[in-house]
């Protein structure tokens, strides 16, 4: 097992963050709010004017309270970096996030587990987006090739009137391991929710993605968009649920799962339900092999077949 | 036209599917730098011919030879044919989610910088600043997608460009741009096989062959062959069953 001294942890997290595609200078800038957590240890936590970040380490977890104050529009993205660098470890993040009315913030999170053999990364989040507030969250995972990791993100999100919530989850580098993704959104009047998940399953990865939107407010809108590519013996189940419970609510569930090979297994379960006669919810789901004509088009430009497949997969997961 | 070396020579080509010959003893020669029109009604084997030359759709000749620059290419993969200098623009180009126009064109023009890529878009009437960062997905109209396909051929500069119905789905303003692009490629030494059912499109061709029932009925200069096509094929009540005297004419 690789050992890591406390002194080296911060620099190594920055290095790993950079390798994962993050801009490590953003994690050191005084102009941007940032938070770096290794295992259950907070290495850095700094807010900026308008954002308050409070953390508390407990025996088994880190509690984070993140508050974006009323009417504040944060000009630079907030950078979060979570990770475990040794082969074994457990990280549990308990996040309470509140974006007060009329605030606006963009969060970029990188979750880094390059050496995982026996790692658990768990997040339980309660997210409250106030009236007319805008919250954008983009989480990118960087895993190693072994796949010895369980990723368990769960979030309960409440959107106020005319709130805008955009969440993008991307796990396309390295092996997934085991993913149990579970998000539920309750939408207020006139709000907009967009949930995007992009995952590339390989080897023996097991992927479960459950996304649910309750369109409870008049004219609330939502999109659940899921893109999964599987190869080897990877398995995936995607459950996208949308409930139109209010007049003029509009929701759409859009799932594409591509299977490359004969042993991977993909499953999609879209559930759409309407309890108000003025609401409308639609869905589309496509599961299948990679489109032959797409591959041939790229081969006709000189790419080998495997290169063409790679371009198509990267595009879908971009 | 390119009256030089023969780039493509098709000899007695046949493709039988389900007991029926889709291509039935087809002969064709295309010279270097030549724009060669293939004119035919629907269902006469035009697209099948394109697929056989490119090697797509799992089509393999059941007889005859496809010779490109002196080599029989029937056994080559699509990639190998493309690397030898053959490429195809499909009648209905595919959409690929997440693949940006910029990246798609760079796949074709491997040594191209941004300026050259932009020039290819301008040649087909697309404003680079509006298109380079768009995905080639279903947010593009059919006409936009076709023009991007043409731009990708311009970027690739193949020795032989096969264009399947380049005018279909293209508006009246964009069509001359597409046709100019084909002429420009020809001037730079590329040959083009211009497959269409529209006799106006082959006006730019150096020679035109009329296809019916999977074989070439006649080959000649564009104007002469277009007239012949109008007279014999537009009014023909038995497409794919050419009368004996027509075959000989």
Please report which band the strand proportion of chain A falls in: under 5%, 5-15%, 15-25%, 25-35%, 35-45% or over 45%.
over 45%
Overall strand count of chain A:
19
Instruction: Label the structural class of chain B.
Output: alpha/beta
* Beta-strand proportion of chain B: 25-35%
Given as residue ranges, the uncertain stretches of chain B (5+ residues, pLDDT < 50) are none
Distance between the termini of chain A: 34 Å
Structural class of chain A, please?
mainly beta
Main beta sheet strand tally, sense and closure of chain B: 6 strands, mixed
Count of distinct structural domains of chain A? 1
Task: Tell me about this structure.
The complex is a heterodimer of chains A (318) and B (249). Chain A is mostly beta strands and 318 residues long. Helix content of chain A is 11%, strand content 56%. Chain A contains 3 helices and 19 strands. A 10-stranded mixed β-sheet of chain A has the order 2-1-5-7-9-11-13-15-17-19, with helices on one face. Chain A has a 9-stranded mixed β-sheet with strand order 3-4-6-8-10-12-14-16-18, with no helix packed on it. In chain A, strand 1 (34-38) and strand 2 (41-46) form a beta hairpin. The longest helix of chain A has 14 residues, at 6-19. Chain B has a single domain (6-92, 157-248), classed as P-loop containing nucleotide triphosphate hydrolases (Rossmann fold, 3-Layer(aba) Sandwich), CATH 3.40.50.300. Chain B has 9 helices and 12 strands. In chain B, a hairpin with a 2-residue loop joins strand 4 (63-68) and strand 5. The interface between A and B is medium-sized, with 22 and 26 residues.
């Amino acid at each position: 097992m690789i050992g890591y001294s406390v002194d080296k942890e911060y620099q190594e997290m920055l290095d790993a963050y950079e390798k994962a595609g993050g801009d490590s200078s953003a994690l050191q800038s005084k102009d941007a709010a940032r938070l770096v957590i290794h295992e259950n240890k907070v290495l850095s936590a700094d807010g900026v004017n308008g954002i308050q970040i409070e953390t508390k380490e407990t025996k088994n977890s880190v509690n984070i309270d993140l508050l974006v104050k009323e009417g504040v529009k944060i000009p630079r993205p907030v950078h979060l970096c979570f990770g475990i660098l040794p082969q074994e470890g457990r990280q549990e993040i308990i996040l309470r996030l509140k974006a007060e009315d009329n605030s606006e913030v963009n969060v970029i999170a990188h979750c880094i587990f390059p050496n995982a053999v026996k790692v658990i990364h768990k997040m339980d989040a309660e997210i409250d987006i106030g009236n007319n507030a805008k919250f954008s969250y983009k989480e990118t995972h960087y895993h190693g090739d072994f796949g010895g990791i369980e990723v368990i993100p769960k979030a309960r999100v409440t959107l106020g009137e005319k709130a805008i919530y955009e969440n993008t989850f991307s796990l396309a580098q390295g092996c997934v391991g085991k993913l149990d993704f579970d998000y539920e959104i309750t939408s207020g009047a006139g709000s907009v929710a967009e949930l995007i998940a992009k995952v590339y399953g390989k080897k023996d990865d097991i992927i479960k993605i459950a996304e649910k939107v309750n369109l409870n407010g008049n004219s609330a809108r939502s999109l659940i968009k899921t893109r999964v590519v599987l190869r080897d013996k990877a398995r995936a189940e995607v459950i996208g649920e949308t409930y139109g419970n209010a007049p003029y609510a509009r929701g759409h569930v859009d799932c594409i799962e591509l299977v490359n090979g004969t042993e991977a297994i993909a499953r999609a379960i879209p559930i759409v339900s309407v309890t108000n006669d003025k609401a409308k919810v639609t869905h589309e789901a496509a599961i299948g092999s990679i489109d032959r004509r797409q591959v041939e088009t790229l081969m006709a430009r000189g790419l080998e077949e495997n290169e063409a497949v790679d371009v198509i997969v990267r595009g879908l997961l971009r | 036209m390119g009256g030089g070396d023969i780039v493509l020579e098709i000899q007695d080509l046949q493709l039988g599917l389900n007991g029926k010959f889709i291509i039935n003893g087809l002969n064709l020669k295309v010279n270097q730098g030549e724009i060669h029109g293939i004119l035919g009604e629907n269902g006469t084997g035009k697209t099948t011919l394109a697929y056989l030359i490119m090697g797509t759709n799992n089509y393999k000749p059941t007889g005859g030879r496809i010779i490109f620059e002196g080599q029989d290419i029937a056994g080559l993969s699509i990639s190998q044919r493309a690397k030898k200098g053959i490429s195809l623009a499909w009648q209905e180009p595919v959409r690929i989610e997440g693949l940006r126009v910029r990246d798609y064109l760079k796949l074709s023009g491997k040594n191209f910088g941004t300026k050259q890529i932009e020039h290819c878009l301008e040649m087909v009437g697309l404003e680079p600043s509006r298109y380079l960062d768009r995905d080639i997905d279903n947010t593009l109209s059919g006409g936009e997608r076709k023009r991007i396909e043409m731009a990708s051929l311009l970027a690739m500069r193949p020795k032989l460009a096969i264009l399947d119905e380049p005018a279909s789905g293209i508006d009246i303003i964009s069509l001359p741009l597409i046709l100019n692009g084909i002429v420009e490629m020809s001037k730079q030494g590329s040959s083009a096989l211009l497959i269409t059912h529209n006799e106006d499109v082959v006006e730019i061709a150096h020679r035109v062959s009329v296809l019916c029932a999977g074989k070439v009925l006649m080959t000649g200069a564009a104007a002469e062959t277009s007239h012949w096509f109008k007279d014999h094929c537009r009014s023909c009540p038995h497409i794919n069953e050419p009368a004996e005297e027509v075959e000989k004419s």
